[in-house]
UniProtKB/TrEMBL annotation:
Signal peptide boundaries: 1-20
Domain of life the protein comes from: Bacteria
Gene3D superfamilies from the UniProt entry: 2.70.98.10, alpha-1,2-mannosidase, alpha-1,2-mannosidases domains, GH92 mannosidase domain
Keywords, comma-separated and alphabetical: Hydrolase, Signal
Protein name per Swiss-Prot or TrEMBL: GH92 family glycosyl hydrolase
Keyword 4Fe-4S set for record: no
Start and end residues of each Glycosyl hydrolase family 92 N-terminal domain: 34-285
GO molecular function (one): hydrolase activity
Span of domain Glycosyl hydrolase family: 292-754
Pfam families on file: Glyco_hydro_92, Glyco_hydro_92N
């Protein structure tokens, strides 16, 4: 865990003996409450290293790079329980279910240079080093560890586009740095298509590589400078094991031909015996080496490690300060860490001069800050709605405009599906950039070209070659005998279409709204009244047989799930779903059957993303994330309240394995943030949040418009599971939702909790959240 000072420990101990009101002033700051180690064990796949809010550089330790078929557990490059550290690379995903990145691996060396990482079970076999967990420190924007084999204290910090290393070497030992340009996360032979390292006359080192990984043909450029002059260097292409340019002796001039090219490059840089630390400053770019140099010069001054660290700390304090949380210490740590994880991506992709590389692999220029790393199948649900609440319009508009700009230069003319570093991976399903754009527009985010956005959305929703869309447009569903995962695709397309209709309606495009409203009802074409499940149909209209609602197989009827999870994915028409289920009582019974399902005899070990099971509810994967709130639509909000307690208690805690599944670029964390506040965006695009129950004594949103919205809780204990009453600004709130405009106006939402369920509050049809169908019809 991150190291907490004695004063903070005493403060938390005193807080435990006081009332919530008395304890609040003694709580550690939001910044100090974050523990970046949460999610680094188990299935969380987060990294503990240094990153600024939405930073281009994610500078973090790598404990192992695995061959791609074994890379799932090392998707972030780091696992908490690994005994050795290979080095420190500059790009990482936070919590994904797929691996890549790990670019520009830097290794400090205090002895003879070893060119290969060696075996994790025998650190002496290579350049990797053992380390002690007690020596690790991780906090937002800073990481430190002692490499015991080398005797080196390594410290890392990061600005937006720059990573800064500070290495303290043993007295009398030579200071050397190895650059291994061969490996990356999701490693396999032939991944590096071509690369180059060059040493400039002023000692700047630059380079380039193109990789064929998760995103094909990704180009990455870097620039690196050292705080001390080199006394020697060696460049190698390990493909042929032939050294290039040799080892430079002191006094031998460097020239601009000091470079090596190939597919397996390394460089070793010698600084001799030095007094004091060696600092290494690295910047990256997707554009060119000139862009990387400009990024390098945009931050950090003359190797001002403490200055970069302080500025990044200030940036994190400001970002985390958007939410003030008063809760039990463990919950508070979990929540501020969740908020931290929600603010790592989408990451800055454009260079300091506004240039960026697009999905067409060409370089473009923009007058806004281009972002990438869009895990849209995951993040449209809660992470992006969270950003619309707590991030300024400029940041949200930059993200939306980045999506639109990518569509405008895409070879296929569609919005990103799952993209990073500007490149498309075609991972997951749906066109979920659409709800992200629509939700931001409908919530009044300024700085978006709505007509360009609408054109991009329609282009994505009508691109017939993508994911069975042609058949979907013709038949009203995706046929399973022509397209895998057809049931999931049909219901997800229908929701995306509904968000297009809502935005078109707001813009006054009535014909477009009517067209996509009709498509939004296509979920019904997957509904099987006999089994009361969403199912896959064949092109002739018959359901595929045999049918097993518990079956999970990649490429089958569903995407990373089965009928139990996907039969609830009708967020735009939950009232219609309740009716199709047979009414309120039948819906509640079906939900209970899902949560209480006996999984004895079922084996999901082949499905990596299936984690965090509660019956057939799977919290470790996104299709289930709104399902606990479905009880509200069936007039049983007290059942939602009990299930949320069950989920939070079993799926989150403040240890390294504190996330039940992949954080998925902040979605798992955003779910917890919303749920702890007491409401959740079941239907982004509706401008409503469904009320569940709070998990904090007090939470205040410091809104970008300068207003404050506070959620207070009376009687919050483990025994008091149930909401007894809710008031908004002192007036009784009898409905089970709150509007985005009500939050933006500022005020206070107050909950009273109790041990027995209130089976009257929020139960009538008029109290329920939005649905495109009327309740009871």
């Amino acid at each position: 865990m991150r190291r907490i000072g004695l004063a903070a420990v005493l403060a938390m101990a005193l807080a435990g003996c006081a009332t919530a009101q008395e304890a609040a002033p003694a709580q550690v700051s939001a910044y100090d409450a974050v523990d970046p180690f949460i999610g680094t064990a188990g299935k969380g796949h987060t990294f503990p290293g240094a990153v600024a809010p939405f930073g281009m550089v994610q500078l973090s330790p790598d404990t192992d790079f695995r061959f791609f078929r074994q890379s799932y557990d090392w998707a972030s490059g780091y696992r908490y329980d690994d005994p050795t550290i290979m080095g420190f690379s500059h790009t990482h995903f936070s919590g994904t279910g797929h691996s890549d990145l790990g670019d520009v691996l830097i290794v400090p060396i205090s002895g003879e240079v070893q060119w290969d990482p060696g075996d994790a079970t025998d650190p002496a076999s290579g350049y990797r080093s053992a380390y002690t967990k007690a020596s690790e420190i991780a906090e937002p924007g800073y990481y430190a560890v002692t490499l015991t084999d080398a005797g080196i204290r390594a410290e890392l910090t990061a600005g937006v586009r720059v990573g800064l290393h500070r290495y303290s070497f043993p007295r009398g030992a030579p200071a050397r740095v190895l650059l291994d340009f061969r490996p990356s996360i999701y490693d396999y032979p032939g991944k590096v298509l071509w690369s180059r390292i060059r040493v400039h006359p002023d000692g700047t080192v630059t380079g380039f590589r193109e990789t064929r990984g998760w995103a094909p043909g990704r180009q990455l450029y870097f620039a690196m400078r050292f705080s001390r002059p080199m006394v020697g260097y060696q460049l190698q292409n390990r493909e042929e094991n032939i050294p290039y340019n040799g080892f430079r002796q002191p006094g031998r001039a460097m020239d601009d031909r000091a470079q090596v090219q190939g597919r397996a490059l390394e460089g070793a840089f010698d600084f001799g015996n030095i007094a004091g630390p060696l600092l290494v400053k690295v910047a990256i770019s997707s554009v060119d080496e000139t862009g990387a140099i400009r990024n390098l010069e945009s931050e950090g001054g003359d190797f001002d490690f403490n200055g970069v660290r302080a500025r990044t700390r200030t940036a994190w304090e400001e970002a985390l300060g958007a939410v003030e949380i008063d809760a039990a210490p463990e919950m508070r740590t979990s929540l501020y860490t969740a908020l931290y994880h929600s603010l790592i991506a989408p990451s800055v992709h454009g260079d300091i001069d506004g240039r960026w590389r697009g999905p067409d692999n060409a370089v473009h220029q923009s007058d806004f800050t281009v972002h990438s790393t869009f895990s849209l199948w995951d993040t449209f649900r809660a992470q992006h709605p969270l950003l619309t609440l707590i991030q300024p319009d400029t940041r949200n508009a930059d993200m939306i405009n980045s999506l639109i700009a990518a569509q405008q230069v895409s070879p296929y003319g569609i919005l990103p599906v799952w993209s990073f570093h500007g490149q498309e991976t075609w991972t997951m399903i749906g066109y979920h950039a659409v709800p992200v754009i629509a939700d931001a527009y409908l919530k009044g985010i300024h700085g978006i070209d709505s007509e360009a956005a609408m054109a991009a959305m329609i282009a994505s929703a009508t691109y017939r070659p993508y994911g069975g869309l042609g058949d979907y447009m013709d038949l009203g569903f995706v046929p399973i005998d022509r397209e895998p995962e057809a049931a999931s695709k049909t219901v997800e397309y229908a929701y995306d279409d509904w968000t297009i209709a809502r935005m078109a309606e707001r813009m006054g495009h009535t014909e477009i709204a009517a067209q996509f409203d009709r498509r939004a009802g296509n979920w019904r074409n997957t509904w099987d009244a006999g089994t009361r499940f969403v199912r896959a149909r064949k092109a002739d209209g018959t359901f595929r047989e045999p049918f097993d609602p518990t079956a999970i197989n990649y490429g089958s009827d569903y995407t990373e799930g089965n009928a139990w999870q996907y039969s609830w994915f009708v967020p735009q028409d939950m009232a219609g779903l309740v009716t199709a289920m047979g009414g309120d009582e039948a819906t509640v019974a079906k939900l209970d059957a899902m949560f209480d399902f006996d999984n004895t005899g079922l084996d999901y070990s082949h499905a990596e993303d299936i984690a965090g099971l509660i019956g057939q509810y799977i919290h470790g994967n996104e299709p289930s994330h709104h399902s606990a709130y479905a009880y509200v639509y069936a007039g049983a909000p007290w059942r939602t309240q009990a299930r949320l307690k069950q989920i939070v208690d079993s799926q989150y805690h403040s240890g390294p394995a504190g996330l039940a599944g992949n954080d998925d670029v902040g979605q798992m964390s955003a779910w917890l943030m919303f749920t702890a506040m007491g409401f959740y965006p079941v239907t982004p695009g509706s401008n409503q949040y469904v009320i569940g129950r709070p998990f904090t004594d007090r939470t205040t949103l410091n809104l970008p418009n300068g207003r404050r919205f506070t959620i207070t809780t009376e009687g919050l204990t483990d025994a008091n599971l149930y909401v007894q009453s809710v008031t908004l600004n002192g007036r009784p709130l009898d409905r089970t939702w709150i509007g985005h405009d009500e939050i933006q106006a500022g005020g206070t939402l107050h909950f009273v909790m109790g041990v027995e369920p209130n089976m009257v509050w929020g139960t009538n049809a008029g109290a329920r959240p939005y649905s495109m169908s009327a309740y009871g019809q």
